[in-house]
User: Which sequence fits this backbone?
């Protein structure tokens, strides 16, 4: 008997094997439990929503109760405008703020901003809605696309800021040094080298933020409101898919509920298409080899 | 040190002819916070030749190199005292523009660090920030720089490809070409071959030999054979002090200081 097969080793060996297999099974079960809701949600949205999808849904305005047909063209366009407005607010502030935190934020002020960003990230969306309602809707005396965009934009800031910071930090110091040693300023280095190197990750952060706000209904109820008509003016109430889903789903009319499911399917698809498109547009031709 | 002296004999190195002073370092002290990393270093770097800096890890030779183009400025809590005169002008003077300084004193790093861009854009980066050239002039400048870095023939058909697709040795020559593109006077090299295989190392050494006709080169290296092969003058650093400085022939065959002798004969380090 060799040294590595000491007395009683067979039993220990068996125990280890059993424990190993058990933990493997538990881990796999947890993974399944994690994906199951996602698969079910997708399945349910497709199963319920597919029947309501047709050309009219994308081109027609909503019809009054009782009239068949109609679509949500205004809400689809409205959602796109709102996400666009939110990006105008959230992306510059979030990205530049993230760069600041990563490059210059090793001080008390940086620490405070980081802490506040994390707190803001955890603030319920309805609270952001009330805040913008008080800051924008009350002074201007009307619900508007502008207010909706501002609310969603505020929600984007912490996510974009923190992911940008993390990814900019990951860029190796040697790249910064190479640029600085060529006589580039710190700002130019960040813009032309560091951001380019961190691009993929920063885009992922932006997508996460966009996906999150695209589905928000609560803050929009208080800020953008809704309308059944075309509305592309940002100083007027603006319909959106999430608010439309909310309004339609709680009605007792069967065709409205079907419309709500269809809207949910369109919303999910929009976010999906947006992700794929952004990934494609920024795909890494110059990927770092690590 | 039989091998090193053989190398020197093969190269036919005698006493280097005295060239004009390019950089004069006087009473240079450097601190990382409370750590005294460079202690009263005095050293003269002559133009259009190669000066090698050797010494064990942590002896301050890289810190010294980075003091020559103020790359230590970006380290938090670092403090520099003394003078570093480039063509007679103190680079630590308050009125010196660091951007202009670093254009004149370029740097090549230990690991090849190309930017996440195409081969062409890597070389064009420096000229662009200094507004040196545009359009077809820029293309000519990139070609010229890559030729000087002995890389042009290997990459002329892949200028638009990612720089990461090149081999390690090619990447390092690209980094050298990137520095040459801004037309520096001094090129600092911080262990430029330590991440490369022997063949790539040989190519870089040949390249350095070419470049010294036109540029002042300072190289930090762990490889004493390399220092003996390429340099005219060598400085030996230990614990932040410049122990000995002189012609490479002298340092590697007949060092004055006991500590230098112990180091080059491999008794420590």
Assistant:
């Amino acid at each position: 008997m060799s040294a590595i097969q000491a007395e009683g080793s067979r039993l220990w060996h068996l125990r280890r094997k059993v424990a190993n297999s058990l933990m493997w099974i538990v881990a796999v079960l947890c993974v399944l439990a994690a994906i199951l809701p996602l698969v079910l949600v997708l399945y349910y949205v497709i199963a319920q929503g597919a029947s309501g999808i047709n050309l009219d849904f994308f081109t027609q305005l909503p019809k009054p109760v009782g009239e068949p047909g109609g679509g949500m063209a205004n809400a689809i366009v409205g959602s796109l405008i709102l996400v666009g407005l939110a990006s105008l607010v959230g992306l510059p502030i979030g990205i530049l703020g993230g760069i600041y935190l990563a490059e210059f934020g090793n001080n008390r002020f940086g620490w405070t901003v980081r802490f506040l960003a994390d707190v803001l990230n955890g603030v319920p969306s309805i609270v952001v809605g009330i805040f913008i309602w008080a800051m924008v809707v009350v002074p201007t005396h009307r619900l508007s696309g502008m207010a909706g965009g501002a609310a969603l934009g505020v929600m984007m800031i912490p996510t974009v800021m923190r992911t940008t910071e993390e990814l900019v930090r990951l860029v190796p110091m040697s790249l910064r040094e190479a640029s600085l040693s060529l006589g580039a300023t710190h700002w130019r280095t960040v813009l032309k080298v560091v951001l380019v190197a961190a691009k993929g990750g920063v885009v992922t952060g932006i997508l996460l933020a966009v996906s999150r706000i695209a589905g928000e209904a609560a803050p929009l109820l208080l800020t953008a409101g809704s309308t059944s008509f075309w509305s592309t003016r940002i100083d007027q109430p603006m319909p959106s898919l999430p608010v439309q889903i909310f309004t339609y789903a709680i009605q007792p009319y069967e065709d409205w509920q079907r419309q709500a499911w269809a809207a949910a399917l369109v919303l999910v698809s929009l976010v999906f298409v947006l992700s794929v498109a952004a990934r494609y547009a920024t795909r890494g031709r110059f990927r770092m080899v690590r | 040190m039989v091998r090193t002296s053989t190398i020197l004999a093969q190269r036919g190195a005698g006493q280097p002819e005295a060239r004009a002073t390019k950089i004069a370092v006087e009473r240079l002290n450097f601190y990382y916070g409370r750590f005294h990393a460079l202690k009263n270093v005095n050293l003269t770097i002559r133009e259009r030749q190669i000066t090698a800096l050797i010494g064990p890890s942590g002896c301050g030779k890289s810190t010294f190199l980075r003091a020559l183009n103020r790359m230590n400025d970006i380290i938090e809590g670092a403090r520099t005292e003394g003078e570093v005169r480039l063509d007679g002008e103190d680079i630590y003077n308050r009125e010196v523009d660091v951007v202009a300084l670093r254009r004149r004193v370029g740097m090549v790093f230990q690991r090849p660090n190309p930017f996440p861009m195409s081969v062409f854009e890597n070389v064009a980066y420096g000229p662009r920030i200094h507004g040196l050239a545009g359009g077809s002039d820029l293309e000519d400048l990139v070609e010229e720089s890559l030729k000087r870095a002995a890389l042009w023939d290997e990459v002329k058909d892949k200028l638009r490809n990612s720089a990461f697709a090149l081999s390690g040795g090619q990447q390092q020559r690209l980094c050298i070409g990137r520095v040459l593109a801004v037309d520096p006077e001094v090129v600092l090299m911080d262990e430029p071959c330590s991440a490369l295989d022997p063949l790539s190392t040989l190519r870089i050494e040949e390249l350095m030999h070419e470049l010294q006709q036109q540029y002042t080169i300072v190289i930090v290296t762990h490889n004493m054979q390399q220092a003996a092969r390429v340099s005219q003058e060598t400085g030996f650093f230990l614990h932040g002090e410049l122990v000995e400085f002189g012609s490479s022939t002298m340092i590697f065959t007949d060092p004055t200081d006991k500590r230098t002798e112990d180091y080059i004969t491999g008794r420590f380090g």
